[in-house]
């Protein structure tokens, strides 16, 4: 009965073609119904039905992402079939779904071994392909002997795939090198182009991981480079020599000649020609003849109409540009012409090459050309142009920038490019130049003012960072402004409501700086003066005080007060708080502004508050290194607990007394005046703290001493500071800077301003990769195999030499007397010692892996 049901299922079973036709009808529930059928069919004992179900499941997993891990055991059952069609479906499913964590992985070891030893080359091929995809450490170890046998197979198909599997086996089981490496090297002498291509491909991948281990095989690769006529084999060999020549410079001189011969051929393939050029540019650039020939050949790619070849030519120039810029300059016309190409990849490579030619003499001209391209380019390429200009200009603290006024104006022009989306980079450079270059702050304020008064920029969200930097610079360096009133008006214009709240907070803070500066200039003057900061003329009827008349300062204060009144009720807490703080400050000093015009008394409370705020904003900000936080040493006695769950208990102890206190929320009121009076009372009072608070603090410190610094050390440190006030702090400042002037090589009309640089550079230190390489064991195994091969040859030479010495000694013994025999014995001892020393020298010479003398 069961057999009849199986027969019926197989007769009416849907094939893979039926499944595809059903999927094309677009039924939403077809996949779920098909999976139910597959689950039912795959459990049947008939291998034909099971294999078709597994084939459909593999198709759904590949195209629709259906999970097929549950069918792993059924795939093993299909593989065990004696029919090749079933095996192919089973191996395909295993290669598609199996991983190192598959539970039934161990069940296929014997089946793989059986198929690898099969007389059918197609079954062997299926097993090798499966091993190359899912090979684990255990599979590679258990099947190394079978792979070794197949490396010497007489069937080209089997041997070719066995050579490809070696790469996976070596990676998973490095000890397989001891078994298979010698036979793999022997395949380098094969005359079959398919086998040679396979083995060279394997060595190309191995050399990319650790080229030094394969230097002894340079003679074999050199022979293939000279004798082979297969372009793909030659390309792989050139890739190998590009790696070897970079670590063994003597090899480059020998390889340069055959590489040049390939480039001089008339009908050489473009792929081989490009690989020769790339090899010369990357590893043989010290060979003048080869380099000049490669530069001449690269022009064929640059002038070709095919965009692919043109891209390859530009890419090859980008390889040689860092070391031999003259090669790019010789082809600059073709590079500039490529900027107008239709292919975006060609334009991008041309852009990178154009920026590689930038120096302090031509940066102005090249930037002007690129900005013209940016105005008429698509958004993607436009932003690539802007980024390509920003990056080299800011490298090494703007070392190629001489005229910072021009560069700041260029940054302002970039902000007005319609498709500009590099606001973050421009923001960083505007602030960075302001903190580093003092002579450029006047131009920075001018550029910032132009950006702030432009209402069209407020609607572009990509420019918000630039406006933030402009607002900060206008407030921080307001003393360089010709019209503080205009700056404040631009900062508080109604259209700023389009900005995010975080940037509006910066606008308000900058307006506060402008107000403080203007009030300070108004209140600090003892006599009427007339600098260029005047907002209104003296004909208004009031005397001008340090550039501000009573009318001008009053209009400034009224304008700021009017602009902030609407912001005092905003939802954002940061904006609301800053607006109310400034309004409170204005209310405190507003009535004293009129008194200043008639009175010279500078001891008023408002004047003291203004002087205090001027001191707050007077400290100049400097650049801070990205590694400044790492330079701060960890205080002794501080233990940083990685698991901070203990802080929850501390916070509970602190918050519970507050919650249980008798003070209600309506009785708590905060007042600046009360806080100031309380601070003065605490400062004037010399009484010790209450005993209750001291005992609570001592108890808390005793229970949670992990989070406290050592009290003894802090007391000793305070005593040392009290005894010697001139002692410097043992902790270095976070932003330790030094002024380093740049001396240009050529005489220029305008001197380069001083740029503040950090002592240890501005670039963040990159931590070395702590992860150990997985290829170290494989490299050691290959080096051992190659050195063992050399040692075997040396041992053969030593044996021949010893036999020759023994023959000579026997002849001397027969012709000498007993006395001579004794002398001869002494001589033999000395000769043995000398021969041992000579062997030691020869062994020491053969230890390092070097290129054989054949190539040198």
TrEMBL record:
User: A single GO BP annotation from the record?
Assistant: Golgi to vacuole transport
Primary localisation category: Golgi
InterPro entries from the UniProt entry: AP3_complex_dsu, ARM-like, ARM-type_fold, Clathrin/coatomer_adapt-like_N
Start and end residues of each stretch annotated as Disordered? 708-856
The Gene Ontology CC terms held by the record are: AP-3 adaptor complex; endosome membrane; Golgi apparatus
- Where is the sequence biased in composition, kind Polar residues? 770-782
Locate the Clathrin/coatomer adaptor adaptin-like N-terminal domain: which residues?
Answer: 28-513
Does the record carry ATP-binding as a key word? no
In terms of superkingdom, the source organism counts as Eukaryota
Which keywords belong to this entry? Golgi apparatus, Protein transport, Transport
What subcellular locations does the record give? Golgi apparatus
UniProt signal peptide: none
Basic and acidic residues compositional bias, start-end: 713-723, 757-769, 791-807
Role this protein plays: Part of the AP-3 complex, an adaptor-related complex which seems to be clathrin-associated. The complex is associated with the Golgi region as well as more peripheral structures. It facilitates the budding of vesicles from the Golgi membrane and may be directly involved in trafficking to the vacuole. It also function in maintaining the identity of lytic vacuoles and in regulating the transition between storage and lytic vacuoles.
Q: PANTHER family attached here? A: AP-3 COMPLEX SUBUNIT DELTA, DELTA ADAPTIN-RELATED
Q: Which family does it belong to?
A: Belongs to the adaptor complexes large subunit family.
On subunit structure and binding partners, the annotation says: Adaptor protein complex 3 (AP-3) is a heterotetramer.
**Protein name, entry field:** AP-3 complex subunit delta
Organism from which the protein derives? Brassica campestris
